[in-house]
Amino acid sequence: MNQLPNSIEARDIAFQLHSYTDARKHEDNGPLVIEKGDGIYVEDNNGKRYIEGMAGLWSVAVGFGEKRLVEAATRQMEKLPYYHTFSHRTHGPSVELAEKLISMAPVPMSKAYFTNSGSEANDTAIKLIWYRSNALGQPERKKIISRVRGYHGVTIASASLTGLPNNHRSFDLPIANILHTSSPHYHSMKKDGEIETDFAKRCAQDLEDMIRAEGPETIAAFFAEPVMGAGGVVIPPQGYWEAVQPILKKYDILFVADEVICGFGRTGNMFGTQTYNLEPDMMTLSKGISSSYLPMSALLVNEKVYGPMADESHKIGVWGHGYTASGHPVAAAVALENLKIIEERDLVGHVRDISPAFLRRLHSLGGHPLARESRGVGLIGAVEFAHEALSATPGALGGKINMAFQEQGLISRNMGDAMAFCPPLIITEKQVNEMFDIAESGIETIA
Ligand code: PLP
Question: Which numbered atom of ligand 1 lies nearest the CA of 297?
Answer without folding.
Answer: 15
